[in-house]
Specification:
Number of helices of chain B: 26
Order of helices and strands of chain A: HHEEEEHHEEHHHHEHEEEEEEEHEE
Low-confidence stretches of chain A: 1-43
Oligomer: heterodimer
Strand order of the largest sheet of chain A: 6-5-7-1-8-11-4-12
Structural class of chain B: mainly alpha
Number of helices of chain A: 10
Largest sheet of chain A: 8 strands, mixed
Radius of gyration of chain A: 22 Å
Distance between the termini of chain B: 21 Å
Strand content of chain B: under 5%
Radius of gyration of chain B: 25 Å
Strand order of the largest sheet of chain B: 1-3-2
Low-confidence stretches of chain B: 1-36, 48-56, 425-443
Mean pLDDT of chain B: 84
Largest sheet of chain B: 3 strands, antiparallel
Chain lengths: 426, 552
């Protein structure tokens, strides 16, 4: 990092502290705690790796087992390195990192259709609400904590899935999507020499300037911005982070050879380079049928990828500044359905579990509790905006801030009424 | 424009790749399908005729020219109210490029561009619209648009072959089958896919709720999906509206592709209710079949239900059907519907120009849902022919006022076909690739791969640019965009600098360079070590401009 970059960061930090500090009015003591926490962490911005489980993992077969319930399922609970906390037998590696992790067993999010649920959990707003397209948490992090001088995007998504984009925040905070971590970014290098490429780009800039002067439009401006971002990235040293091929073979095998493991490894490289938000997708959790075989296979991928990610970040001193979030669309029905010879579980947003690791949170705890069947949240329910406000708080983002949409409409980062989980903040 | 020979060879390619479809012999609009009606359908029509206090019924059909004038009157009225000065009329070059992209889905070739710009007949724009509507590429472009709408891009559909539907749509759009007939056939389709491409719609929406969502969005312009589980929070849709509409699909049996049975996917409508649990969500409710916002339907369990729905849906007295399509076509041409989003029409979300929507809907229905009539009326309007170049008065105004033409993004298909128009022979290789692989599952050749890669997320507005860095990297750095051969093919090697520059401009931006540009480019070329390399660079630059990528 050069001095200019650091200077930029300091100024931004200073401005943020000013906004939150002396002159600020706090609604409650709790706000002070948050503000104080945010202030402490400003010195070192936090990154986030979201491990998104498309389809919705069964909570009763992963992190909230109910061995004595109806529809308990086939899996046995195992102990973790924190006494009293048990998880599925298919997460033996992760069990050793429980002291750095929190299980949020009170998730209760209301949306039971994949697209709508996933949209809601990524943005904190319901799809179509108020006729706007809302930014995903990654785009919010890019805007609020991202280093504007980083030549690669501050928001990267790996393995497809629907991460949702930057919505009204515009193309500057759009995610860079990487379809296959082992291949990195396709077409990253120019096919002509530097001089020739530069002369093309400078002619292109002249053309763009002239066209946009006459035909000013949102689309044209976004086209120009995106080209500039792409060219900057091509020329940057940081773009080497996208190449995982140089990583040692033993580490690669620890992460797992599948696309998810490779995605986790790439996520670590990107965070190390300064990317603020990386989302790694793992699909296949929509287990209406054949739930147990499928969850077992998927759990093995998560156990290898996520646990190695935690230990790798930890070794590099990055775990406390990187929040890992594991979550899916929703949970799955407490009872096992009657479909076919290999039954499964259906969508269930009423009670489920998500996981947070690192990021300086207080680990080794379970927050929220479901009833004996895993069907209803009995303690500390966490709805979508509670969850969003918590993630924002950990990352040092003021979730009460109002952002202007392009037409000047003020929208809060997280809607009013959110109740962040203060027990998480160390 | 395509000549007879190239049309014939195109058809041959299509026919070889898939089931043989006799496009040439397809019915003309006058000979529309006249299937014998069942008693039930006749009963229903009588009932509809009686209850029609609907303003849509029985309005005289205006000429397309008068309808264009009515569009302009309604749009101008609001512009005047806002005291805004509209942009000037588009130049011929602006108009031609826009009309090509909007009507047939690609930019014109340099030859077509030159011919139009040099044409001095006063009614050449009217003539161009007619020619484009008569071109087979019209049907192909419409089929691209509707195939994407009818077949959701979800993992369940990864094995579904889309070509049979695309070809079916292409044929009907080209012979200008009425939208009511197209809809009716889509909704009542039965049989195996290799005989009837329209069943692909059901195969790809293979559950009662998906079908209900799709039909209400696409053909009624309303979003009912919230009412699947609860009464809609801010629109007057009740759960009974949803399940009342869903009731019409309860007897449909779809055999999707995949599995041990390798016969063609098939759709049938049996006598009994479909018992397959996969086709019904757990929250399914069983209520009597009901026409949306209208009465209950009288169904005979011995007869198929879907024709009863199709007759009501496509009837001229249906308050939703005509409006829904008119609004979609409007959005296709102006980037945004009169009601936006296009499939969210309800009292709380009024049209920007309610009377215009009413007029267009009435006329569309009076024309027997003649799509070419509707499109011709739009394209010949002053509103459509306005420049997208803003002036001091209108640059800050809401784009929906249409005081200037909105600038739209190209769809991935438009972008591919436009690139292919410039890069020439590339498209031949792609056709070959498509042909070879058409019998297999994905991927289906370069065009399909390109489209998948450039596809914006569902529901993305045509007015907002969502192309990401990976796509731009491909446009800048793929071998196809850097091939030295292309420029040699495009520009005559003996041509002088001025002619060469003009040729590249006409090919890519479909206009002549301005004097300033001509001298800038001459200067640029003079610095190049060799002429072809310089021209190649210039081609690369023009292909990567906003001006090429956007439909302005």
């Amino acid at each position: 990092m050069n001095n200019e970059m650091m200077g930029g960061l300091h100024r931004r930090d200073f401005m943020k502290l000013g906004a939150m500090g002396v002159g600020g009015v706090s609604a409650s003591g709790w706000m002070n705690v948050l503000a104080g926490h945010a202030a402490e962490t400003q010195a070192k911005h936090k990154s986030c790796i979201l491990l998104y489980m498309s389809g919705g993992p069964s909570h009763k077969d992963t992190f909230d087992l109910k061995p004595d319930s109806d529809g308990a399922g086939e899996f046995k609970p195992i102990a973790t390195n924190v006494s009293g906390i048990q998880i599925s037998e298919h997460f033996p590696k992760f069990a050793k990192w429980m002291h750095k992790s929190a299980l949020l067993r009170g998730m209760s999010t209301g949306e039971g259709a994949h697209t709508r649920a996933s949209y809601f959990l990524h943005t904190g707003y319901k799809e179509g609400q108020g006729g706007l397209t809302y930014p995903s948490l990654g785009a919010i992090a890019s805007m609020e904590t991202g280093n504007p001088l980083l030549p690669i995007p501050n928001f990267v998504t790996i393995n497809g899935g629907r991460s949702y984009g930057s919505g009204y925040l515009g193309s500057k905070h759009q995610p860079l999507n990487i379809a296959d971590a082992s291949k990195g970014v396709a077409n990253l290098g120019a096919l002509v020499g530097d001089n020739q490429f530069n002369s093309r780009v400078s002619l292109l800039n002249e053309m763009e300037k002239a066209f946009l002067k006459d035909y000013s439009s949102e689309a044209g401006a976004a086209h120009q911005t995106t080209y500039q971002r792409a060219v900057t990235m091509m020329k940057s040293a940081q773009a080497k982070a996208f190449d995982i091929s140089g990583e040692p073979a033993n580490l690669r095998s620890e992460y797992g050879s599948g696309k998810f493991g490779e995605g986790c490894l790439l996520a670590r490289r990107l965070v190390e380079t300064g990317v603020r938000f990386v989302e790694v997708n793992l699909g296949g959790w929509d287990t209406h049928e054949n739930n147990f075989e499928r969850v077992k296979t998927l759990s093995a991928q998560v156990d290898a990828g996520m646990s190695t990610l935690i230990s790798d970040l930890n070794q590099r001193g990055l775990l406390d500044s990187t929040l890992i979030v594991w979550m899916g669309d929703f949970g799955r029905t407490p009872k096992i359905n009657q479909r076919g010879t290999k039954p499964g579980r259906d969508h269930y947003p009423k009670a489920w579990t998500s996981v947070m690791v690192g990021g300086g949170i207080k680990g080794g705890q379970v927050i929220g509790k479901t009833d004996k069947q895993g069907a209803t949240v009995e303690e500390r329910p966490i709805n979508t905006i509670d969850f969003m406000s918590t993630a924002c708080s950990v990352l040092g983002i003021d979730y009460t801030k109002q952002v202007q949409t392009p037409i000047g409409r003020p929208i809060r980062i997280v809607e009013k009424g959110a109740n962040p989980i203060k027990e998480l903040l160390a | 424009m395509l000549n007879q020979k190239s049309i014939a060879s195109k058809l041959l390619v299509l026919a070889l790749g898939f089931a043989i479809i006799e496009i040439a012999d397809a019915a003309t609009p006058d000979e529309k399908d006249t299937k014998p009606q069942s008693k039930q359908e006749k009963r229903q029509e009588k009932k509809l005729a009686k209850t029609s206090a609907n303003p849509l019924a029985a309005k005289p059909l205006l000429t397309s020219k008068v309808l264009s004038a009515m569009i302009d009157a309604e749009i101008s009225k609001k512009i005047k109210e806002e005291k805004v000065t509209p942009s000037a009329k588009s130049t011929d070059a602006e108009f031609q490029r826009r009309a090509y992209l909007d009507i047939i889905g690609r930019i014109p070739t340099s030859v077509e561009t030159r011919a139009f710009l040099e044409n001095t007949t006063p009614d050449k724009r009217v003539k161009l619209v007619d020619d484009l509507l008569a071109d087979d590429e019209f049907g192909k472009h419409m089929a691209d648009i509707w195939q994407a709408l009818l077949l959701p891009r979800i993992s369940d559909n990864r094995r579904v072959q889309t070509e049979p539907l695309t070809l079916w749509l292409e044929k009907h759009f080209n012979v200008n089958t009425g939208w009511d007939q197209i809809t009716k056939e889509l909704l009542t389709s039965t049989g195996p896919q290799d005989e009837n491409g329209s069943i692909t719609y059901f195969i790809s929406n293979a559950s009662v709720d998906k079908m209900t969502d799709s039909v209400s969005k696409l053909f009624l312009g309303v979003q009912l999906q919230c009412a699947q589980c609860h009464n809609h929070p801010f629109v007057d849709w009740k759960q009974n509206d949803y399940w009342g509409l869903a009731a019409f699909f309860m007897k449909v049996q779809a055999k999707p592709p995949g599995g041990k049975d390798t016969s063609s996917p098939t759709v049938t409508e049996g006598k009994g209710l479909n018992k397959n649990k996969k086709t019904l969500p757990e929250a399914a409710k069983f209520v009597p079949a009901k026409f949306l916002a209208s009465g209950e339907a009288t169904l005979n369990t011995a007869e198929p239900y879907r024709p009863v729905l199709a007759n009501w849906l496509t009837s001229k007295t249906n308050p939703f059907f005509s409006k829904a399509m008119v609004n979609r076509v409007w959005a296709q041409y102006f980037g945004k519907g009169l009601v936006d989003p296009v499939d969210d029409m309800h009292d709380g979300n009024p049209a920007t120009h309610p009377e215009l929507l009413e007029t267009l809907a009435t006329q569309f229905s009076a024309s027997n849902f003649d799509l070419k009539f509707l499109i011709r009326s739009i394209c010949n309007s002053e509103t459509y022919q306005r420049s997208s170049k803003p002036n001091a008065s209108n640059k800050e105004t809401d784009i929906a006022l249409l005081a200037r033409m909105p600038i739209k993004n190209m769809t991935p298909e438009q972008l591919f076909d436009s690139l292919a128009t410039v890069l020439g022979a590339a498209s031949k290789a792609d056709q070959k690739l498509d042909k070879v692989k058409a019998g297999k599952n994905l991927p289906k050749g370069a065009r399909a791969q390109f489209v998948t890669f450039f596809q914006p997320e569902e529901g993305t507005s045509a007015l907002s640019y969502e192309t990401g860095i990976p796509q731009i990297l491909r446009l800048m750095n793929s071998p196809q965009m850097n091939s030295a051969v292309i420029i040699q093919r495009l520009v005559d090697k003996n041509a002088d600098t001025k002619t060469s520059i003009e040729k590249v401009y006409l090919s890519v931006l479909n206009r002549m360079p301005t004097d300033e540009e001509a001298s800038r480019m001459t200067n640029f070329l003079s610095q190049a070590t060799d002429k072809n390399k310089g021209l190649g660079d210039m081609l690369w630059v023009l292909l990567n401009t906003s001006e090429f990528t956007l439909n302005h």
